[in-house]
Amino acid sequence: MKVFMKSILLIFLSCVTVQLSAQQFINQGMIEYEVKINNHKAMGDGEFAEMFKDKIPKLSTAYYQLFFNAEKSIYIFNRKQDEVRIMWDNGNSDENIWFTDFVKSSFIQQKSVFGETYILTDSLININWKITNETREIAGFNCRKAIGKIFDSVYVFAFYTDEITVSGGPMSLHGLPGMIMGITIPRMFSSWVATKLQLNGVDDKKLTPPTKGIKKKAKDLAGTVIKATKDWGSYGTQAYWSIFL
Question: Can you give the pTM of this predicted structure?
Answer without folding.
Answer: 0.84
